UniProtKB/TrEMBL annotation:
Residues 660-674 have a biased composition (Low complexity). This is Suf domain-containing protein. PROSITE patterns: TPR (PS50005). GO terms for biological process: mRNA 3'-end processing. One of its GO terms (molecular function) is mRNA binding.
């Protein structure tokens, strides 16, 4: 059931798009018997054939039930495609397990398996445990006679010497064992051998440290998925990590000889393809590196492997054909081109036909290219690009103007409604200096093109007349273009009007303008504003056209219930305004009752704020200049004969004793009813005296004449307000007239 579910969820379109489901299936397979788990493993590995962890899990499940034939079959399918140390160690474990009861004769098979594994994955920096296992195996071999003992010691020495010069994660352990081994055989011989290998060992350790920096950036549990680079950046980061690792290996950090260097780089590419096999650039880089290394046959195999994995990659096919053509294998290249022609859709087939014509022209001559073009032009799915490509090929390479003109003319009868083809034909006639036929072509094209597709052709026609026509023809074509575009554009009759932009267009040559760039920008802005005049008249207050059709799939707001904000808006008839202070009203129908009551309570509890709001100027339009607002406020008189909440004159409220600090939070309920002790009043009187002295100082200063000085004085007054706010004293008034300070809660 799970296998069929995975199969249904991994069609050709989203086969590699759900690796999380694959992980869940793999974990569930561990809980099933081998009969139920086998279809799941087969399905997983059909989708992710380079996933070493799934292959190892599959092998372990088969080995658990001693199904050795199945294990052999699995290893034959995966070992060469999965250069992963844990999988190869499982292979060695399997070989040892099969041969454990076969006696001494089977030890050679085990030794051969070790050598086979180390030859394929021994260069991995994680291969240290595999080298340790090999050395331990050699030590365990029986020695029946001196000859066998000598062979065993030689094999052991070679294994140690190869292991210690290979950068791996067990190098220190292997070096210590090698020292003991050589000293146990002969101290005199050990001294020379250890001295020779000490430098190589140190060099290998240094390379290991550098290589490990790149290896640690790689996710070795990642599944090979089709590149998307969407969502998280994991795919992109892994691609970059492998690119850096490959660049490091191509630099030959170990300074090894050419053959070992090629083997090392090829090993890194093969490991990279375990995770990035769906990336065409990796296959291309690998093939090109093979070519540069002088192994073209290996490059051919790389291309063929890559096209089996991603057969839809046309760019990889073109690269493969290019390589075959460059080395003289024309038949192979032609076979690749023919394959591209048979696999693509209309757009890709059009490109393939163009490239095949060029290929035939290069390799087989003019007649072969002409013959194929005639055959392709008869196809109903032949695109206009094929006509343009062949015509220009005949004109530029074959120097045959007549053939090129005939091809363009034949294509025009078929693609006269394609503006791009018409313009390509115009460009060809430009090269012939055939101005008469250019005008005739424009007229023929514009008479058949639909108006909505003729914009580009009209622009080119106008440019042609501006460059090569007389003034009368120039103005005539411009007017005709305006009339044609006025029928299809939103601007309507406005486009028919003469504009200075037209003059700029007439008298511009390449990057030379008849005006400055500032003038050009101004003209562009004016043109934009002029076009928007008629649009604004057709739109409502929210910018929506009155006659626009409302889509049933879009929820639009009920604009009939919306109120446009206006600071001086009059309350609607029948509404009950909440009068807070003269000149300050809040329309009760524009705010919820809760918000209205809260605003009323706050404003009534703070008379100073009421007086401030009452003197704010009416604002309509953009935000006013701050300096102007402050200047107006500083020059206005604050009215003090206003009514409080209980009908008490506001002047009495302002001169009443301030409440204590503890009662400030409840001032809306106990306004004017709480008094400070006499000690507090004495302290307040002293502060009022100091404040009065400061006010007298301000009075003696000449009144400021500019807004910046007014702002400075107002900030000074606010600072004094802050020093007296704890005792309930607030100073406000006109800085110009020096009004006395009053107290308020």
């Amino acid at each position: 059931k799970m296998a069929s579910s995975f199969d249904n969820n991994n069609t050709n379109s989203n086969m590699y798009s759900n690796p999380e489901s694959a992980e869940i299936l793999a974990r569930n397979a561990l809980k099933l018997g081998i009969t139920q788990a086998t279809p799941i493993y087969e399905q997983l590995l059909a989708v992710y054939p380079t996933s070493a962890k799934y292959w190892k899990q599959y092998v372990d499940a088969q080995m658990a039930v001693n199904n050795y034939d199945a294990v052999r079959n699995i290893f034959s399918r995966c070992l060469f495609n999965c250069l992963h140390i844990p999988l190869w160690r499982s292979y060695i474990h399997f070989i040892k397990r099969v041969n454990e009861n076969k006696g001494v004769a089977a030890l050679d098979d085990t030794k051969t398996a070790f050598e086979f594994a180390l030859n394929n994955v021994g260069d991995d920096i994680a291969s240290g445990p595999l080298w340790v296992d090999f050395v331990s195996f050699l030590k365990s071999l029986p020695s029946g006679n001196p000859r066998d003992e000598s062979q065993r010691m030689n094999s052991l020495r070679k294994a140690y010497q190869k292991a210690i010069v290979t950068p791996n994660n067990c190098a220190d352990q292997l070096w210590r064992e090698y020292e003991c081994f050589e000293n146990g055989v002969s101290r005199q011989l050990a001294k020379g051998l250890l001295s020779d290998y000490q430098g190589k060992f140190n060099s290998a350790k240094a390379v290991y440290r550098e290589r490990k920096k790149y290896v640690d950036e790689i996710d070795w549990g990642m599944l090979a998925v089709v590149p998307t680079w969407s969502g998280t950046n994991k795919e992109e980061s892994q691609w970059l990590a492998w690119k850096r690792f490959l660049g490091f290996e191509k630099g030959n950090p170990q300074r090894i000889d050419s053959d070992l260097f090629k083997k090392r780089v090829a090993f890194t590419y093969e490991q990279c393809l375990m995770y990035l096999c769906h990336y065409p650039d990796i296959w291309y880089d690998y093939a090109m590196w093979r070519v540069k290394s002088g192994d073209v046959d290996a490059a051919v195999k790389v291309f063929e492997r890559g096209l089996k994995v991603i057969p839809s990659s046309e760019i990889l096919k073109y690269a493969y054909a290019e390589m075959e053509e460059s080395r003289g294998m024309v038949k192979n290249a032609k076979r690749i081109y023919e394959g591209i022609l048979g696999d693509g859709d209309d757009a890709s087939t059009g490109l393939a036909r163009i490239q095949f014509i060029r290929f035939l022209r290069r390799t087989e001559g003019v007649e072969a290219a002409r013959k194929y073009f005639v055959e392709a032009s008869k196809s109903p799915d032949c695109t206009y690009q094929v006509y343009v490509a062949y015509a220009m090929l005949a004109f530029c390479l074959d120097k045959d103007q007549k053939v090129a003109r005939n091809v363009f003319e034949a294509g025009f009868k078929r693609f006269m409604n394609e503006p791009v083809y018409v313009l390509a034909y115009v460009d060809f006639l430009y090269t012939l200096n055939d101005d008469n036929n250019i005008r005739a072509l424009f007229e023929r094209a514009l008479s058949s093109l639909p108006p909505e597709n003729s914009v580009e052709v009209w622009e080119r026609f106008v440019q042609f007349e501006q460059s090569f026509g007389d003034l009368a023809s120039m103005l005539k074509v411009e007017q005709r273009r305006k009339e044609a575009l006025a029928r299809i554009g939103e601007d309507g009759a406005s486009i028919l009007e003469d504009s200075l932009q037209d003059v700029v267009s007439r008298y511009t040559f390449r990057d030379l303008l008849p005006c400055s760039t500032k003038d050009l920008d101004l003209l562009a802005r004016q043109d934009c504003l002029a076009k928007n005049i008629s649009k604004k008249a057709e739109k409502g207050p929210l910018g929506m056209t009155n006659d626009s059709a409302v889509s049933a799939n879009v929820n639009y707001p009920d604009t009939s219930r919306m109120v446009v904000y206006d600071p001086i808006q009059k309350p609607e008839t029948g509404s009950t305004p909440s009068t807070i202070a003269p000149g300050v009203q809040v329309a009760s129908n524009t705010l919820p009752n809760l918000v209205t009551d809260t605003v009323d309570d706050i404003l009534k509890a703070t008379p100073a704020l009421v007086a401030f709001l009452a003197n704010l100027p009416a604002v309509e339009g953009p935000r006013p200049d701050v300096d102007v607002v402050i200047s107006i406020l500083l020059q206005s008189d604050i009215p003090i004969k206003q009514m409080g909440k209980s009908g008490t004159p506001l002047s009495q409220l302002l001169t009443a004793p301030a409440p204590s600090t503890s009662n400030l939070s409840n001032s809306s309920k106990s306004h004017g009813s709480s008094f400070q002790p006499s000690r507090g009043r004495q302290s307040r009187k002293r502060k009022d005296i100091d404040s009065q002295d400061e006010d007298e100082t301000v009075q003696r200063q000449p009144p400021p004449q500019d807004a910046f000085q007014m702002r400075h004085n107002m900030k000074a007054q606010k600072a004094r307000v802050g020093t007296t706010s704890q005792s309930g004293s607030v100073s406000y008034g006109s800085a110009r007239s020096g009004d006395l300070s009053v107290t308020s809660s």
